[in-house]
Amino acid sequence: MTRVHVLATGGTIASRSGEGSGATAGDSAEVLLEGMDATADVEVTSEDVMTVGSYRLGLPELATIARVSRERAEEPGIDGVVVTHGTDTMEETAFLADLLNGTDTPVVFTGAQRAADHPDTDGPRNLRQAVLAAAHPNARGLGALVAFDGLLLSARGTRKGHTMVSQPFTGGTLVGTTHGDEFRLHARPHRPGTLDLPDSGLDGVRVDLITAYPGADPAALPSAVDRCAHGIVLAGTGLGNAGPGHAEAVADVVARGVPVVLATRTLAGPVLGVYGRGGGADILAAGAVAAGELTPFQARILAAALLAHRPDPHEFAARFTRLR
Ligand SMILES: NC(=O)C[C@H](N)C(=O)O
């Protein structure tokens, strides 16, 4: 019999309104599975990793979740792993899990937009679809995925694009769809490679995200380094541009040994060094590494995972460019 192992981490799928200051995560994996309709032919086991809203997570917790997901994926008796997680930062943890997953066993993230005690909660349905996708033979080798409201998206490239609708995720590759108990594979996601974390995980690693906007102060870059950032992601405008002073600020922090990744705050498309006068061409010439098509949030996760190994700047640039 196919076995799927569920890792619960919290989020709205595990939250109830209760009394007091708003919904909080509290339901265990066991409670989540009690609310889910049984799945014929799939044995479901589970464990609790943590029980928090994903807006409270830091990099060490992301590393814990991603590592446990990989360890379970490596277990011979487990055919698929499901991670229940808050939607706010699912795109970060799922991408880290994708980077770490060198096995053929899929790791399928899911959650809910409406709390467990909401009359129209979407959690049990999403969980069931995630379990069925994780159990499916066609899901093998797909890395980490996000199953939500009938769609299965690649972890790489996806982002939360709406605060409250039932399908909040956008971007990424549409890998498959589920309809009832039927799962269909449409495409295989682009996965350029995997990596390991050191024993210390992401403890102590700091990567700051700085956004370009009209009138933005380029001093945000050196002050991030003063506050001990090991790396910076600059979310530029459009193709990866920023206003006066940013290219010089990039050159300054790169000279101090702190890598800068140039991403775009635009929803889709690659970073390209097209514009001068401080635009992307100058920022890349100042030593920034292009994020390619990675979102700023996922570029930050890749940068953190690489910086955990304390690479020299050339090694960082080469590994980032290979895995982006
Ligand atoms: N829908 C959700 O799961 C949002 C929740 N606040 C979280 O990210 O934990």
Automatic annotation (TrEMBL):
<dbReference type="InterPro" id="IPR040919">
    <property type="entry name" value="Asparaginase_C"/>
</dbReference>
<feature type="binding site">
    <location>
        <begin position="87"/>
        <end position="88"/>
    </location>
    <ligand>
        <name>substrate</name>
    </ligand>
</feature>
<feature type="domain" description="Asparaginase/glutaminase C-terminal">
    <location>
        <begin position="206"/>
        <end position="320"/>
    </location>
</feature>
<dbReference type="InterPro" id="IPR027475">
    <property type="entry name" value="Asparaginase/glutaminase_AS2"/>
</dbReference>
<dbReference type="GO" id="GO:0004067">
    <property type="term" value="F:asparaginase activity"/>
</dbReference>
<protein>
    <recommendedName>
        <fullName>asparaginase</fullName>
        <ecNumber>3.5.1.1</ecNumber>
    </recommendedName>
</protein>
<feature type="region of interest" description="Disordered">
    <location>
        <begin position="1"/>
        <end position="25"/>
    </location>
</feature>
<feature type="active site" description="O-isoaspartyl threonine intermediate">
    <location>
        <position position="12"/>
    </location>
</feature>
<feature type="active site">
    <location>
        <position position="12"/>
    </location>
</feature>
<dbReference type="InterPro" id="IPR027473">
    <property type="entry name" value="L-asparaginase_C"/>
</dbReference>
<dbReference type="InterPro" id="IPR004550">
    <property type="entry name" value="AsnASE_II"/>
</dbReference>
<dbReference type="GO" id="GO:0006528">
    <property type="term" value="P:asparagine metabolic process"/>
</dbReference>
<dbReference type="InterPro" id="IPR027474">
    <property type="entry name" value="L-asparaginase_N"/>
</dbReference>
<feature type="active site">
    <location>
        <position position="87"/>
    </location>
</feature>
<feature type="binding site">
    <location>
        <position position="54"/>
    </location>
    <ligand>
        <name>substrate</name>
    </ligand>
</feature>
<comment type="similarity">
    <text>Belongs to the asparaginase 1 family.</text>
</comment>
<feature type="domain" description="L-asparaginase N-terminal">
    <location>
        <begin position="3"/>
        <end position="172"/>
    </location>
</feature>
<dbReference type="InterPro" id="IPR037152">
    <property type="entry name" value="L-asparaginase_N_sf"/>
</dbReference>
<dbReference type="Pfam" id="PF00710">
    <property type="entry name" value="Asparaginase"/>
</dbReference>
<dbReference type="InterPro" id="IPR006034">
    <property type="entry name" value="Asparaginase/glutaminase-like"/>
</dbReference>
<dbReference type="InterPro" id="IPR036152">
    <property type="entry name" value="Asp/glu_Ase-like_sf"/>
</dbReference>
<dbReference type="Pfam" id="PF17763">
    <property type="entry name" value="Asparaginase_C"/>
</dbReference>
<keyword id="KW-0378">Hydrolase</keyword>
<dbReference type="InterPro" id="IPR020827">
    <property type="entry name" value="Asparaginase/glutaminase_AS1"/>
</dbReference>
